[in-house]
Amino acid sequence: MTKLKILYLRNNNLKDISAINSLTNLTCLYIDGENNNVELKQIEDILSSIEIHVNSQTLSTLVNCTPSKITALNFWNNGTNGAEFPDLSNFTALTYLNLGRCNIPNLDVISNIASLEELNLDGFDRHGKLAKLDFSKLTNLYKLILTYCQLWTEDLKNLTTLKNNESLEINLSTNALIDPEILLELPSKFKINLWNNVNISESFKARLREHFGKNVSF
Length: 218
Known about the structure:
This protein has 218 residues and is mostly beta strands. It has helices at residues 56-60, 202-212; strands at 6-8, 28-30, 51-53, 72-74, 96-98, 118-120, 143-145, 169-171, 191-193, 216-217.
């Protein structure tokens, strides 16, 4: 079974999954479902290399992992029913976090993961919620994905705290932005993707092109 790539273990009475560590080619693991009661520490050796689907109880055990072993976390499309994300401020090796399509109410805890370089929050309604995230602490961030988040122009105001980052690519495609002036406060070296924001006027697109040049796309 060493070639196994996807493993479904939903709704079982699992308590020990440490044997999964031997599945070195695994890319996706489903251990969600209310009956499973497992510790993510049991698979911390492969946790950084897989997309994982868990229930809210299992998600809370993430804090018990050895911080130095966790460099990436991919919880894309987890149905954790609005469960809070754990505080990972001491996970200083963590550089990649994917919470796309996840209903995470406490986005503020992400601000404390100063080591983050890539953050994906796509595919869930973040309107009025993005303000909880203090981007000023994420000085190492160079890629931010905010696609399909139903964002309004006013939701972008705290993005300006990222202007001192060395480089940054922000994907804002498919939102509800109307001539977001706030983006003009960002350095022209940043790359901005505004594809499918149908309410941005042609005159404002011209201003964005003047500021960002080829670094902006629509």
